[in-house]
Amino acid sequence: MSSLAEILMEALGSMPWWGKWLSTIIIAMLPIIELRGALPAATNVFGLEWGPAILLSIIGNMLPIPFIMIFFGKVERFLRRWRVFNLFFDRLFASTRRKGKRKMQVWGDVGLILFVAIPLPVTGAWTGALAAYLLKLERKKALLSIFVGVVVAGFIVTLIDWTDSVIWAVAILMSLALLLLLVWKVEEILIGRNSSG
User: Fold this and answer.
1) Same domain, yes or no: 135 and 170
2) Residue 3 and residue 37 in one domain
3) Beta strands of the chain (E only): which ranges?
4) Given this model, what pLDDT does residue 156 score?
5) pLDDT value at position 101?
């Protein structure tokens, strides 16, 4: 007797091509999951080839980003009518602007690209779009940086998925984490020099 998971996997794998494509785009549009969840689903569950899987994941991940960048201000203003949201946004925005502004001064657009590209739980295109809004970055440049970050994330996730080995995947993720830590340490040193000079 097949388990529920096996039945679900078989049903998803037997969808028509357009259903697989549409499902990949929808998964990539979801916050937190984004491309890093859509790409493995497209190749391992839906059985798509790598080329279409990467392309559809990038398209799906980028679709909501312009809308977030354009309409988040309106949503924020609407929610600020209530005191609890007003206090929440004040604290969140002050902290994010303080930390993010220093990073952007040192790293510029590359900082936003790295932030979006590293496939960790609190990074990605959605968070990058919110950071761009909070830091009042130029919309076109921020959108381009987020796009480049999503493309890089696609290649990182593909590399991890291609390894077919937990050991290699862990080694790649640890290398990326060490690289990110190194970038942050260099940034702290540069910020320290800039503020003391």
Assistant:
1) yes
2) yes
3) none
4) 83
5) 65
Supply angle C-alpha 66, 148, 127, rounded to 5: 50
Task: Judge if 17 and 81 occupy the same domain.
Answer: no
**1, pLDDT greater than 50:** no
CA–CA dist 158, 50 (Å, integer): 8
- Structure confidence at residue 8 (pLDDT): 55
CA-wise closest residue to 119 among 186, 26, 28, 190: 28
Answer whether 0.85 is exceeded by the pTM.
no
Q: What tokens appear for 173 in the block?
A: 């993720």
CB 109 within 8 A of CB 143: no
B/e letters for 73-108, b = 16+ CB within 10 Å, e = fewer, are eeeeeeeeeeeeeeeeeeeebeeeeeebebbbebbe
Tell me the pLDDT tens digit for each residue of 132-180.
Answer: 888 888 899 999 999 999 998 998 888 777 776 666 666 766 777 677 6
Q: What is the DSSP letter of 118?
A: S
Instruction: Find the distance separating the first CA and the last CA of the chain, reported in whole Å.
Output: 71
Q: Do residues 42 and 16 share a domain?
A: yes
Same domain for 109 and 142?
Answer: yes
Range of the domain at 21: 1-63
